[in-house]
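A quick aside before the break. I want you to see a complete sequence-to-structure record at least once, exactly as it would be stored in a machine-readable document. Don't worry about memorizing anything.
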Amino acid sequence: MTYSLFTPPITSGSISSVLGTPDAEDDYYGEPDLDFYSFYQPKIKGVCSLWGAIPMPWNPYKKISQQPAFFANARLTPAIMFHGYNDPTFPLIDSMPFPQAVNFSPSTEPQFNSINYCINNGPFSVNDTALTPDLINGSSYNIYKILTYYSIKCELYIDCSMGHGLDDDCCLSPPDKKKNKTTQLCTVNCNYGSNFGTSASNQAGTAEYMSERITVFFQKILHQSQSSFTHNVFIDCENTSHNCGANTICDLHACNGQTIDF
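That is the input. The structure line, written in tokens, reads:
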């Protein structure tokens, strides 16, 4: 998959000859003769992502419908994901131009679209044009689309008011104020809302809910409870399922009046 990330021009040879092998076996836990793909990866039963993202090639995967093609030969695992609709770091929904675009070569000086250090046969150039994005940081929404395309079990939890990470806790007294990080005084207006549709009023309450959901999700995965994943999108809606029971039905597929395509 690494080799397919970039297309020519490459000054000398293919990407594999320039960058060398991606397998740094001595850096992994375990015996160096144990292959990651045959030994370690099959042991990974699932993944949890907290408002994270995954880099994917910009071209030719500019559209959501084309993104799954990059993962055709990947060993995909079930995933449970939490994300804020207003995340400025890894925007949930991609648009044109892609806010998640990654430029290895910035539009201003200095430009680093070519590198000659720590590689076998440099220089290596990622792109002819500095202004052209090289990667897209696919959000939890993108990952959801990929996993469901390949019928991989997953759950996506979206909070419509949350940014990148949980809201800061409000002060206990007065409860509508947030502590100023500089003065340590409770003077800033506060409305804790990153609770994913639960009654949680602080980070601890939200963390407890996420921990419960993650635990139940992995329990279902390990027990291969297929019918439990009939409903797998939860937008400002609490999932109260437990053990291997069916998920709560959450029909809301919109945030702040904007419909989300699932």
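Two observations worth writing down. The radius of gyration is 21 Å. Confidence is low (pLDDT under 50) at residues 24-29. We'll return to this after the break.
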